[in-house]
Amino acid sequence: MGILAANIFSMGQPFTAYMYPEAFTTGHSDAEDWMWAAQLVLIDGKMRGLFTILFGAGLYLFMEKAWGKGASRWLQVKRLLWLGAFGLIHFYLIWRGDILFSYAVSGFIAVLLFINVSARNQLILGILGYIAGGIFYAIGMIFMQVTADGPEPDSAAMNQVRSEFIKAAETDLADGRAETAIRQEGTYLQFVSHTIDEHGTDPLVNVWLVVFETLPLMLIGMALYRLGLFGGGWNPRSQRLWGWVGLAVGGALTTIIALRTMDGGFTYYGVLAAFLGWSHFPRLLMTLGLAALLALYVPRAGNWIGDRISAAGRTAFTNYIGTSLVMLMVFGNWGFDLFGQLGRGELYLVVFAAWIAMLAWSQPWLVRFRYGPLEWLWRCLTYGKVFALRQ
């Protein structure tokens, strides 16, 4: 549910609008500028972080069950290979913001190299990897921001670098305009062709993100699961304290980043640096704080809303891909033709409607069936046999 709140802006608007307000085809009002700031503080990166940490926990949970049945890590590798295939189908045919392929690659590395490492060492390696990623992002993104947005450099070499950065930003925005034309006037086949022609290598290029964020967070998720965070194994008072401290400190730092970015006038590289450079470390504090607090406060089974949230989580794979399919129809001119028509506030209403749909179908489905549709298919492919679907 939180992932959709982050992704919706690159589903209903040009892809660059995910980060850059000036890419909105509908303009961006002062009120929506403040919505952007709230989004950066509360949603962006945090929902992906939670998703990744829980995926890491799920990797270890799956292996515990596999080991209990005498299976090896190669069953998990097979499972991840199928996930990667799903991710590529998702990327090329539905929506190019797919994260499943990167998860498959990260999970593959985690299972082959780190699954048998102690929980303590998994946590240390995850934190060190995340710190290394933060340093890498900070150097790269902040250099881009200073070079592109700062005073004109004195040297010819730096002027050339500045020109290349500006050209890259213009190319990205031009790609958004081409995407808008296709989604509003073209066909679905043209949409797929554009993805393949202009972004065909993106899944492989984006794998470098694995090393700096996804893999470290998965290791942290494995460690936190093994250390009992999600099963009531921690002192509730300490968990509550550290959860609120992480949320408050990370939130305060991210708020400063958001306000400074707004004061800078939403430049392309200023926004990019805010997302990937400045907020990397505050994002981890908030993500871990949210994980700790949600593990304490989420409604339990037997509670009406708790049962429906749990069911939406148990069908997360179907909800993730299914939401992309629904939005492909909602926004494409082969469906409801709303691409580029809705502003930031209106897109939040689409998110809210999708949340209602997720909570409405997931729980009744699981009353009748053992798994979500895609969860069942993934399980059958992993084990190479057909499982009973009905309860």
TrEMBL record:
Tell me where on the tree of life, at the top rank, the source sits: Bacteria
Q: The DUF418 domain covers which part of the protein?
A: 224-385
Q: Where would you find the membrane-spanning parts of this chain? A: 49-67, 79-95, 101-117, 124-144, 207-229, 241-262, 268-296, 317-336, 348-367
The answer to whether UniProt assigns keyword Transmembrane to this entry is yes
UniProt keywords (A-Z) are:
Membrane, Transmembrane, Transmembrane helix
The keyword Manganese appears for this protein: no
Name this protein carries in UniProt = DUF418 domain-containing protein
Q: Species name for this entry?
A: Qipengyuania vulgaris
